[in-house]
Write a structure and sequence with these properties.
10 helices; alpha/beta; 2 domains; Rossmann fold; five-stranded parallel sheet; 219 residues
Length: 219
């Protein structure tokens, strides 16, 4: 086995790397397609929030117009520039990545942004927001109505059995014959990786990729 199968963080078909089920992803996409939704995808860095957002996007009705933004301090102006009249005729879904960057903003500025999001949502636009748990609590405190109308989906960390299944899936990609053998890793090594990463998929794959290269160099 020469090629390192752990370099890509993109999940393969059938791999379970994220703590949100396919059923929930389909339900989120269906809700966004109908309009007037605020979905908060909560998780730590590397938990898979962005990839989940991509899955939601792929399952949204094709008639929905997609806007993809990164959070900036100029977000209020971006929101005001949304084609609301068009949204009344055709559904619009706005994906906002890295909303935790709002942590640097003062309360007054952030309150304006949250008020705009709530108002625009009532007009028919849906928002899918990538965010960390810490930031969510601040938003809830600043705007209770935002809390009341938003739906929170938390990305849970991987459990140990899921880590083992991920390792086997990746190893079998480069094997000529499929096997249930986790070598070149040991059970103890995988347990240590799982504990150190706290079940974070990106961290797990980064550690696995590095350890795999070391083991291949030693063999």
């Amino acid at each position: 086995m020469n090629a390192n199968p752990f370099l890509s963080i993109v999940p393969r078909k059938g791999e379970k790397m994220f703590g949100i089920s396919e059923k929930n992803i389909l339900l989120m996409a269906e809700g966004v397609s109908k309009g007037r939704k605020i979905l908060l995808i909560s998780g730590d860095y590397g938990s898979g929030k962005s990839l989940i957002a991509e899955k939601i996007e792929k399952n949204i009705d094709s008639n929905v117009k997609i806007e993809k933004w990164m959070f900036t301090v100029d977000l209020a102006n971006q929101l005001r520039s949304l084609p609301i009249e068009e949204a009344l005729k055709r559904k619009v879904a706005v994906f906002i990545d890295r909303f935790e960057l709002s942590d640097v903003m003062d309360d007054t500025s952030l309150i304006k942004i949250l008020k705009l999001i709530v108002e625009i949502t009532k007009m028919g636009v849906s928002f899918i927001i990538d965010i960390t748990p810490k930031t969510i609590m601040r938003l809830y405190d600043l705007n209770p109505e935002f809390k009341n109308i938003s739906e929170l989906y938390t990305v849970k960390p991987m459990i140990f059995q899921e880590v083992k299944e991920l390792v086997l899936s990746r190893l079998n990609e480069i094997r000529t014959t499929r096997s249930s053998d986790i070598s070149p890793f040991t059970e103890r090594e995988l347990m240590d990786i799982w504990k150190k990463s706290h079940g974070n998929p990106r961290m797990i794959l980064l550690i696995l990729a590095n350890l795999y290269d070391i083991k291949m160099a030693e063999s």
